[in-house]
């Protein structure tokens, strides 16, 4: 099967068919998500939190993103892959933005890039699209601006903020973005944005009115995700408990010499053994 295309994503919105997106950061996560039938894989800069152990996404570099995107692309050959432009790899001028985004496609083998911001990044989005690089927008709670926003807070609760987010979404669509992520915005606002746009919205903590949903791999699997409990996450497995238990059993086996057993060991040829040791 061929990866989804941005044209088909728009059709899915028109047909009311929800788009499923999940983050992936390496070969096994991408392979399993593809096998499970995910529509879009996002190599998110959330890898800073869930894979690299940073407190925010701010320390994530473009090299980090390229490295992880490559591994994802090796595993998921039939899935549309979006890679995040990390902090300050755009906003320094169009030429830098184009050069950096190009690396995510050329070296990281992503199909599209995602960047955070609304009307203020519309020029950069337009430049990317003009250069043939599909762009997914990302508004609402934008983690790269966490210090400016004053924490991981729900956005669009008040009228003025909500109006600004609607304007931002429209600016991104006008600039040529093929989709927009709405992160931690109130449900009625996300619904209003989704119906105001012809491109699909992908929600995270944005309620039921979006055209698609995205969550973080480590969150839905409870895979040592460092976050506090998040209301908007639904967990589908408890891999953390499973993995910790399995490793604990391995440690206990080594200590008690229950592992390895004869079946795990390699015998020598009887004749060679006899000649060596008599
Ligand atoms: O980096 C990420 O995982 C994201 C999603 C939460 C949208 O940007
Ligand atoms: Na991100």
From TrEMBL:
List, alphabetically, the SUPFAM superfamilies matched.
Phosphoenolpyruvate/pyruvate domain
Entry binding sites for 3-methyl-2-oxobutanoate: 45-46, 84, 114
Q: Which InterPro entries match?
A: Pantoate_hydroxy_MeTrfase, Pyrv/PenolPyrv_kinase-like_dom, Pyrv_kinase-like_dom_sf
Pathway per the UniProt entry: Cofactor biosynthesis; (R)-pantothenate biosynthesis; (R)-pantoate from 3-methyl-2-oxobutanoate: step 1/2
Q: What is its EC number?
A: 2.1.2.11
Q: How is the cofactor bound?
A: Binds 1 Mg(2+) ion per subunit.
The keyword Cytoplasm is assigned to this record? yes
Q: Note whether Metal-binding occurs among the keywords.
A: yes
- Name the residues that bind Mg(2+): 45, 84, 116
The reaction(s) catalysed by this protein are: (6R)-5,10-methylene-5,6,7,8-tetrahydrofolate + 3-methyl-2-oxobutanoate + H2O = 2-dehydropantoate + (6S)-5,6,7,8-tetrahydrofolate
- Give the record's family classification: Belongs to the PanB family.
Protein name as it appears in the record: 3-methyl-2-oxobutanoate hydroxymethyltransferase
Query: Which species is this record about?
Result: Paenibacillus artemisiicola
């Amino acid at each position: 099967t061929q990866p989804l295309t941005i044209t088909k994503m728009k059709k899915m919105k028109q047909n009311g068919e929800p788009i499923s997106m999940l983050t992936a950061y390496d070969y096994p996560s991408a392979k399993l998500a593809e096998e499970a039938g995910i529509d879009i894989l996002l190599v998110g800069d959330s890898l800073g939190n869930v894979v690299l152990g940073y407190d925010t996404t701010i320390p994530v570099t473009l090299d980090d993103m390229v490295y992880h995107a490559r591994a994802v692309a090796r595993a998921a050959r039939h899935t549309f892959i979006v890679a995040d432009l990390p902090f300050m790899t755009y906003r320094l001028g169009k030429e830098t933005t184009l050069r950096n985004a190009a690396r995510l496609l050329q070296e990281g083998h992503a199909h599209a890039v995602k960047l955070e911001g609304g009307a203020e990044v519309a020029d950069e989005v337009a430049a990317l699209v003009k250069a043939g690089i599909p762009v997914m927008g990302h508004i609402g709670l934008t983690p790269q601006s966490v210090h400016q926003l004053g924490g991981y807070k729900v956005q669009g609760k008040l009228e003025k903020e909500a109006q600004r987010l609607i304007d931002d979404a429209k600016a991104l669509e006008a600039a040529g973005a093929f989709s927009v992520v709405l992160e931690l915005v109130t449900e009625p606002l996300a619904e209003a944005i989704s119906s105001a746009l012809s491109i699909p919205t992908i929600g995270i903590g944005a309620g039921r009115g979006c055209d698609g949903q995205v969550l973080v791999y480590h969150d839905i699997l409870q895979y040592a995700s460092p976050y506090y409990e998040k209301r908007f996450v639904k967990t589908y497995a408890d891999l953390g408990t499973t993995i910790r238990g399995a490793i604990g059993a391995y440690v206990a086996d080594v200590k008690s010499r229950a592992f390895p057993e004869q079946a795990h060991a390699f015998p020598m040829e009887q004749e060679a053994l006899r000649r060596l040791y008599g």
